[in-house]
Amino acid sequence: MKGRGTLLTELNDRSREVFRRVVEDYLDSGEPVGSRTLSRTLSERISAATIRNVMQDLEYMGLLDSPHVSAGRIPTQHGLRMFVDGLLELGDLTEDDRSRINATLGSNERDVGTLLDRVGSALSGVTAGASLVLTPKHEAPIKHIEFVSLSPERALVVLVFADGHVENRVFTPPLGQTPSSMREAANFLNALAEGKTLSELRRVIEHEIKSRRRELDTLAAGMVESGLAIWENEGQPYERLIVRGRANLLGQAGEAEELERIRTLFDDLERKRDIAEFLELADEGDGVRIFIGSENKLFSLSGSSLVVSPYMNADRKIIGAVGVIGPTRLNYGRIVPIVDYTAQLVGKLLADRG
């Protein structure tokens, strides 16, 4: 298969125009596009027979496909990628879309997690798709740590940060915990924690546990190690993934086959643990990226597309990402500027908050 750029340059003006119109009409309607429809709307007067010949050539090149016996064509994944890379015309962000996003981010909500949850809801509402928001870890220095027993099988770690932020996380403690072992674990951590962020504290604690295990009660050491796992979110650099607007995707499913693909997508969202790795865009630079169908390893079975952009802190370091997921026939020209604007706004907001 030739490269996308090579194929695009090989198309003459007529073939490029037919290809562009097939893709645009398909993205707009979701239906196969026929030669008679195109013959009535093309800028150049071309017969339906000539258009059919051009469409057959495009199909032979792997850019179009015939889903049924009918003469209508739809773009292949390869064709969509070529369209997005070389022919996509981005629209301007409408004032209505801008206002709806600004209204969410204009909130005085102090908790970043709650604010980003609202961003996800607004993004799914504006785009009529499902939104993804990957939230950053809280990196302020720690002021105090406390363990609270909830039951023999559950405990709570309370993290108080120097900037006033408080996080509560539930985890499974070692069996046989006692009030004294919980106090000992908290005292051990607080002696090390002051002035350190979570990522800095983890490295120090791992070293201290190894060197001072004999000084620690077995249960106290177990409490510290159990808590470490939940703090660091299994080693991921991000806090959590917020998914909003799933009902939008269900509402777009017109056939049983589409509904099954969306169910597969939901299963992927719940089951896959490598989504943070997938959304790690540090090596790719900033800007919006588009993943279509099987290009997206996370959603390869569901045939969905993802439009995603990282957002940065004041030091231009990528700390999270926002995106929209939907069927491959997304309105890319409208959604790309929405995702780009939202990512830039989130980054500025978090940078202003320090």
UniProtKB/TrEMBL annotation:
This is Heat-inducible transcription repressor HrcA. It comes from the Bacteria. One of its GO terms (molecular function) is DNA binding. GO terms for biological process: negative regulation of DNA-templated transcription. The gene is hrcA. Pfam families: HrcA. Keywords: Repressor, Stress response, Transcription, Transcription regulation. Negative regulator of class I heat shock genes (grpE-dnaK-dnaJ and groELS operons). Prevents heat-shock induction of these operons. It comes from Profundibacterium mesophilum KAUST100406-0324. Residues 115-336 form the Heat-inducible transcription repressor HrcA C-terminal domain. Coiled coil: none annotated. Belongs to the HrcA family.
